[in-house]
Amino acid sequence: MGNAEEVEVLISKEELDRRVTELAQQISRDYQGKNPLLIGILKGSFVFMSDLIRRLTIDFTVDFMGTSSYGASTQSSGEVRITKDLEDSVAGRDVLLIEDIVDTGLTLRYLLDTLKARQPASLKVCALLDKPARRLVRVPLDYYGFIIPNEFVVGYGLDLEERYRGLPFVGVLKQRK
Ligand code: IMP
Ligand code: MG
Fold first, then answer.
1. Where are the chain's structural domains?
2. Over residues 25-31, mean pLDDT
3. Do residues 35 and 57 lie in contact, with contact meaning Cβ atoms separated by under 8 Å?
4. pLDDT in tens, 117-145
5. 152 in ligand 1 pocket by Cβ < 6 Å?
6. In this structure, CATH architecture of domain 14-151
């Protein structure tokens, strides 16, 4: 069911709150006078993104892309599939990709290459979580919330087989006895 009792808190609701506010302030400063297109990568980023955009003080528009990678649920295979594409053109726009977590970096690498070919004015990345231990390809993280250890995390939008997305904190599953 995604019960909180099964999950150990790694990043509390208060820490998330504070950091997301800081990120929103930083992004608002950097994009002052611009009208960026924020692209949320489904599904994991939607909770982070909804908190982030409510704290921005600039004009912006939002769109979403869906991706899934073939292979086991807790391991990225590197073969990325676009399950939902953008509704509007990114040509000439200042694009900011919003990701939940960067793990191997393969998803982000694929998205950056795909979007770059569509000729945005600029292309940057904001990820809530950075898990550098398993990185396979180099990706630029222009904005990130927290660097986390090599553990599988859930909550605040992140899932394990579609469970736990609604937890208000980021946590690690407890070992089952
Ligand atoms: P990457 O392509 O290996 O960087 O993985 C990207 C995607 O894998 C993320 O957008 C997540 O959806 C998923 N993912 C990677 N690590 C975790 C985790 O610890 N918890 C939940 N999802 C994860
Ligand atoms: Mg994801």
1. 14-151
2. 98
3. no
4. 999 999 999 999 999 999 999 999 999 99
5. yes
6. 3-Layer(aba) Sandwich (3.40)
